[in-house]
Amino acid sequence: MGKLLGNIIWWLFGGIATALEYFSAGLVLCVTIIGIPLGLQLFKLGLVMLFPFGSKVSGASTNPIGVIGNVLWALLAGIWIALTHILIGVILFITIIGIPWGQKHFKFAKVAFAPFGREVEILA
């Protein structure tokens, strides 16, 4: 019950907006054949944005393709999604009630810069 309530509150506190950003970027990448693997990773992260309580994102890419993908991503779209996370996090920190969700947004801002090569796990 706690995860469900946390996720519902998360949706209201910016989860839906950030999930739409990840899904939109994933859709754009899937239009190109080369971008399909990267787009699929963004779809996974979009799901994490919808269900952060009960999800786990770990690791970072060290292989050359992942590093190149992360650099291009950070320059083209990652900075905007990270800024969205930071802005929502700052707004949530204004109230005491919003601090836990603000902390989640700050954690996800790091993921927004380098999403490729990360392990995404949706826990039950």
SS-derived structural category: mainly alpha
The main sheet comes to: 2 strands, antiparallel
> Which spans have pLDDT < 50 for at least 5 consecutive residues?
none
Helix content percent band:
over 70%
Output the strand order for the largest sheet.
1-2
Shape: globular
Report the total helices. 4
Number of strands: 2
Ends: how far apart? 12 Å
What radius of gyration results from the CA coordinates? 14 Å
Overall mean pLDDT score? 85
Strand content: 5-15%
Number of domains: 1
- SSE order: HHEHHE
What's this, in brief?
This protein is mainly alpha-helical and 124 residues long. The chain has one domain (2-122).
Based on the model shown, name its key terms.
73% helix, two-stranded antiparallel ribbon, mainly alpha, 4 helices, 124 residues, 2 strands
Written account of the structure:
- The chain has about 120 residues and is mainly α.
- The chain is built from 4 helices and 2 strands.
- The chain has one domain.
- It has a two-stranded antiparallel ribbon.
- The longest helix is centred in the first third of the chain and has 30 residues.
- It holds the Pfam family YccF.
Question: Layout of helices and strands, plus pairs?
Answer:
Elements: H1 2-31, H2 36-50, E1 55-58, H3 64-93, H4 99-113, E2 119-122
Antiparallel strand pairs: 1-2
Helix pairs in contact: 1-2, 1-3, 3-4
